[in-house]
Structures are given as structure tokens and as C-alpha cells.
Amino acid sequence: MLMLATEVMLGFMGEFDLIETFFKRPARHATLGVGDDCALLAVAPGQQLAISSDMLVEGRHFLSTVNPRHLGHKALAVNLSDLAACGAKPKAFMLALSLPQVDPHWLSEFSQGLWALADAHDIDLIGGDTTRGPLNICITVLGEVSATQALLRSGAQVGDDIYVSGHLGDARLALEVFRGSMKVPEAVFEHARWRMEQPTPRVALGLALRGIAHAAADISDGLLGDLGHVLKASKVGAVIDTQQVASTLACTSDPQTPIQLTLASQLALTLSGGDDYELVFTASPDQREAVVSASQASQTKLTRIGRVTASPDLVLRAADGQVLPHTFASFDHFKSP
Amino acid sequence: MLMLATEVMLGFMGEFDLIETFFKRPARHATLGVGDDCALLAVAPGQQLAISSDMLVEGRHFLSTVNPRHLGHKALAVNLSDLAACGAKPKAFMLALSLPQVDPHWLSEFSQGLWALADAHDIDLIGGDTTRGPLNICITVLGEVSATQALLRSGAQVGDDIYVSGHLGDARLALEVFRGSMKVPEAVFEHARWRMEQPTPRVALGLALRGIAHAAADISDGLLGDLGHVLKASKVGAVIDTQQVASTLACTSDPQTPIQLTLASQLALTLSGGDDYELVFTASPDQREAVVSASQASQTKLTRIGRVTASPDLVLRAADGQVLPHTFASFDHFKSP
Q1: CB contact (8 A) between residue A38 and residue B334
Q2: Which one of A59, B122, B223, B231 is at 20 to 30 Å from A188 when CA atoms are compared?
Q3: Is residue A80 part of a domain?
Q4: CATH number reported for the structural domain that contains residue B280 in this entry
Q5: Contact between chains at A129 and B138 (C-beta distance less than 8 A)
């Protein structure tokens, strides 16, 4: 596209060289990958295309000092997490990249982080765009799921169990340490930082939950917020066992490096931490065995944290049965504390 | 996604309100649109999905003073132009938007420009992302085309005619006037600016050329550059009649407001202007009648500008048959003059 201002040459390579060097590999699944006006992708008979886009901005979604290899991983991981939440099988992705300058080392590291996760999920980079500008990474992922098996936010039913996958609160813990508002042992911080920078999208779990879960969402803005979207879309409420939620915090349960945190801190981190990329889902109590099987098949820890109710409220219960106030707002990009 | 820095509230609405207010309408074609983790889209039997992404950055692809309604149009138009170049029928699009602040007037105007063009092509906005950051608009369009009918860059054959659609050079003319390097009458500038800010994606032409054109690309980086990609992908060359190319310049042929430009200026604008969003395509001379029919069916002016050759060079011929040097480089985002 036409450039609006006369600019100084910033790097040693042009846009096409950049794509050739770092982002072009033969497509294995797509009919046509990087290098034409469009990519072409076949969708299997009986399957629908599941699509999601996430945009990552420097200073907002990652620190300028982040390891670019980790950033490449994370930029794709947060998108794959959306496919996981729909029970879709990842097929391909598009990458649009705005770069302040062409830094071959940065690009090499970034692309290696990206390729490693793409390879782990056997998906192709099929197209995109590169331009100069403030650092911005926009990925669109494409997956397949049958219309009848897609996990939606709107399917939760009264009486359903509510589960979360893996561990909650790690990313927020790392952020609070970065901010200086919490102190933890070095090993705990490194683990939390690794989880913040290199989250594991729960794709295998999402696939295993097809036909079992009634509703699902990924936890990107904090459990309360994302579960809230499921409840609103399903026109139901929930009672949550906060002790079970707090138990998902990795750093308090790790026998290697146990740390003491107040219950309030544990609840803040796990209920409204954000950036977890775990799944929250609901399933009928009749399906408890099937849920255990899905957990085993996907090698993903699950914790049952509550129950769907007809009342539209989201009620937080303490261990003693008392109702807790929930003043932990969901993270929202335009309404910050 | 988790926010990294404590930020001051910038607007009156949160991310979800913003989406609800400006970017959510019932999906007409998609199974599931804005509001879940993924959008779901059915692809018709026998069709493949055509996908393209374009990222627009303030100061690079548009001026900060641009009318936001025009910007909404253009952000979608440049993406639809890629579908046109593949002969794909537009179905839906994703919008990822990074905004420095929430300005309801700007968002209302931007979304109206976007909706107007989306409505003209009967396509749904099915999902995306909004975040705070430097102004950046990333759109991914999704269309349908059968694998056998898709227009690729790689299909040009020796002996093919080469055509361009519509008018070339308008956007570059407007840019040069903005830069102060050219002066034209007000009416000429207004027309050129309109073409720069509100290009017409040649979707109808792309559809009409299926089964007729051997190869196609859209002209975003200048005719020489984009035709060059077609020739390289097809492993062929071309001889171009520069007088025919220059004749596509609207401002010199308009009887209402004729202006005089040197031939060198005409050639610079039309051969390497950029931001045209016209199509360049090749077709066998046997198909000349079919090409005329496609032009009429799509109500799109076409100009035959040359011929595909076995020699890999791109030769520019003057009216007198002389070979012209072509020192007009293709616009390239990372290798600017």
C-alpha cells in the first residue's frame, strides 16, 4: 500500500525479503499459502470454519523487554486458546505485523517462537501483512469444527458442573512482581513468568470436550469476567466454591517452592488475574466420568469449581459457606482501575 | 488479555460496550458472529476459503486528519481488493482495532464507512479484537472460490494479453499534491483524493474473470511492482505499451477538468503510483471477447496494456517503439526512497 510520508530506510531488507526470510515455508495443509493476494484453504465436508483474531500491542500486552521468541509463542498461543474454547481443531493462521524497524535478530527469534508452537499444532502460516509502525502483532487463526459440536458460551444449563483447566493466577502473580506490589522466591517468579510469557493453549482439552461440555470460554480477562460472559450468554447464574478456585494457584501447592499468600491474594489472583489461557466450561453432572476421561486424554488437570444456577447471580462461597462480596472487576481494556 | 501497565481510564465505555455499540449486528451469513471466542462460518460444498489480511497504520497508510468514515471504507476496501484479485466472493470479515482513545464520534463515523461497504458486498463482520494503543486497523477478509477457478499470480502464460482495470495514478497524484510536489486544479485534486481515500475494490470484475483470466493481482504497490510479482510467480516476462498505461490516468482524460502533465509524470503516477486497488490480469488473446463481456458485466473499464513474453524481462515501450528505462521502483514498506 502507498506510503504517506517520505521515510528513511530503516533496515537492510524490503518487505518481500522479510517475508521470504522469516515467514515463508511451504504450506502443508493449505492449497495456497504466503505469496499470493489471498491464501486458499479447504474446509473438510461437514466442518465449519472457526475464526478468531487477537491483537497484541507493546506496552499493553507485553513488555518491550520480552524475549521475542516467547512473544512469538504467546502471540499465537492466545489465538489458539480461542479455538480451544470452541473445540475447534487448528488448521492455519494469518500474521499481520507492524514493526518500528527491521531487526533480523528479533525477527529470527520471534519467528522461531511462532514456528515451534505452529509445528506443535501442525498448522501453516498462510498469509498476512507486514508494515512499518509501532510494534503490533495481529494474528487470525483458522480451525475446523462441526456446527453441532462447537463449544459456545451460550450453552450452559442449570445444574451443570463448572470446571477450570490447569492453574489460574500465575500470569497476574508475575505481573504484580514486575510491578513491585508482590515479592516471591525467584523460582516461583520464574515459573509464573514462564506461564505469563508462554501460556499453553488448551487445544487438546477443547477437542476432548466436544460432545461433553455444554459451554466453554477461555480465561483471558480473568475467571470472573469470562465465566460472567458464559453465564450472561446462557441466561443463567452460578455458585462458585472459592476454595476450589484458590486451590488452582500453582505457587501455593508446589511442594518444591511453597509460598504463603493471604486468602485474599489467592482469590484476587485466581478469580480476576487474567492472561491465564485456561478453559472454563460447564457440563452435566451425568458427564463427570466423561470429563475425567477428557482430562486424562488431554493430560490436562481439571478442577470442579461450582454449579450453574437458575438465578442470574454469580455467587462466591467461602469454605464455611459464607457468601463473599466480589469486588474483583474483570480486566477491561478501556475501563482500567 | 491482561494489561501490563496501570493506565488512566480514557473513555466512557469498556471494550464490550464499544463492540456492542459500534460493531455488533446480527450475522446474516455466519453461523455465529461477534461475541463468542470464535466466529463460525460455513463454506459451501466445492468451494475453498480465500483469506487475506491488511494492516493500516496511522501516518503510514493514512493521515491523522482523514475523515474516519472514509477510513472505515478504505480499511475494508483494500482487503476486498485482495479477494477480487483471487476471483473470490466476499463472505465475512474480522476487525482488530487498536485505538489511542475511545472517541464515540470517530468510532461512529468509522463504523458507518465500514458498514456501508460491507452492506454493498453483503458481508458480515463476524469477530475481532479491540485494544488500546497506537491507531492500527487490521482486517482479515474471508471469501469463497472454487480451487479450480481461483485467480493466482502464477498462471500467466506466454502470449497472454495484459490488462488493467479502471484508472491508475489517482492516489499517488493526491499524495503528491498533499506533499506539495504537484499542483492541480481543485476539482482534479478532490477527485484524486476521493479515489485515494475511497477506492473501489474490483470484486465484480474478479468474479467475472473466473475461467477467463490466467493470472491476476491487485495493484496496491504500483503497477510495475505488482505486475512484477505476477511475472516472477509465472516465470515469464512482459512488454508493456506505456502509452496505454498513461492513458488510464483519469485527470488527463477528463473533458471537464483536463490538465496537462508531462509524459514522465503520467508514467510515474500510473506505473509506480501505488494505492490504486485496480486489478492487473492476463488472458489469452482468444478470450478478448470474453474479457469485453466481463468488463461490461462488471461495469468496469479495462485497458489492454501489453503482452506476456517468454523472456523474463519487463520491457517498457514508448509510443514510437523505443524501450524506456524503468527506474520507477515499486513501493516497498521497508525500503523507501
Answers
A1: no
A2: A59
A3: yes
A4: 3.90.650.10
A5: yes
